[in-house]
Amino acid sequence: MLSQKFKNSKLYDNLINASLSKDDGLNPEQLSHLSLTILKLTCKWRRYKLVANALDRVASEFQRKDLRLGQNLFGCYFTNPIGLAAGFDKNGVTAGILDRFGFGFAELGTVTWHSQLGNCRPRLLRLSFEKAALNKMGFNNQGAQIVKSNLESQNLNKKGSRPAILGINLGKSKITALDWAYYDYASSLELLAPLLDYGVINVSSPNTPGLRTLQSVDQLKALLIRLRELPIRIPILVKIAPDLRNEDIDNIAKLAYNEGLAGIIAVNTSLDRLALKGRYLTQMGCKITKEFGGLSGEPIADRALEVIKRLRGAGDLTIPLIGVGGISSPRTAWERISAGASLIQIYTGWIYQGPLLVPKILEGLQSQLDRHGLSKLSDVVGSNMPWI
């Protein structure tokens, strides 16, 4: 189906892939900003006839509607399991059109209570051969209050009637002391919860000093207990790092279950350089081990899969898991779901492969359901069914 449907769709290959094939091609942050600006304007004008028609054509190319792929999780109905991970749309300016690209859900942010510029440039480095990136952005965003205005201006459908579920990923502002982290998260959550379907407490970014200490069971428990007392009505998830020790992963899984979290997102970017310790960064003139920031993309896929398996096996808990990190093909998506993830998220793979990655994965999942003789994707979650 894909080969026929997209045989004339060469725009992404011709204009973007040539740059993505080398580390020092078009500046990745500038390229991302350009893409986001175009999508922002498209979202703003989406109800004008010409733009609406163009978006309908986009949807016909990238969406794959199949009731077998739908799931009800933490009070939300997901039409398919593929989500856009946090990091692409930090300010919520494209929320009204992301479903047109085939996503079943999208996670906006990371958003902090205070607006912040982020770390010094260059802060997003491309590792083209490995289909990876080194991200040291530092939660650059306009702050929760501007994000609220951005979302309100789009006149989004009400909860329960949206074509794609919308989540918000929340972080701690850099200027906020760790002892006051609760107030930062709570303020953003209370402000934005009425506009979104779920919230994520991000305690795992490597680019905000001290943030990852909030992953310790004692600190995370104290934070979650207080957040649970807020007068909000959306499910809350937590996002964890791939660099945690296995015993810490077990403890977080149990904590999440005991504290009534809606789910766990695994994983964020990695401080471990894995098999790339000798990798030379031409952009910076040094080895990757000399640069801070989080590694994303295909190199972290194996560890991300291990973490999902670990979470699923921690006391046979039934809390929903969202798998993210190095998912770049139908097979890696299937393996993450079979290992225990109810949903998956993509970002770096979407950048390298373009919007065709979403329908490729959806068609791959449909094909595997056919081959296994299954009537719904939820039967695959945690089943360890192989890719055939």
TrEMBL record:
EC annotation from Swiss-Prot or TrEMBL: 1.3.5.2
GO molecular-function terms, A-Z: dihydroorotate dehydrogenase (quinone) activity
Cofactor(s) demanded: FMN
Domain Dihydroorotate dehydrogenase catalytic: 69-369
Source organism phylogeny: Eukaryota, Sar, Rhizaria, Cercozoa, Imbricatea
Name the record gives this protein: Dihydroorotate dehydrogenase (quinone), mitochondrial
Catalysis performed (reactions): (S)-dihydroorotate + a quinone = orotate + a quinol
Predominant location: membrane
PANTHER family: DIHYDROOROTATE DEHYDROGENASE (QUINONE), MITOCHONDRIAL (PTHR48109:SF4), DIHYDROOROTATE DEHYDROGENASE (QUINONE), MITOCHONDRIAL-RELATED (PTHR48109)
UniProt topology in membrane: Single-pass membrane protein
Gene3D superfamilies: Aldolase class I
A GO biological process held by the record: 'de novo' UMP biosynthetic process
Record pathway: Pyrimidine metabolism; UMP biosynthesis via de novo pathway; orotate from (S)-dihydroorotate (quinone route): step 1/1
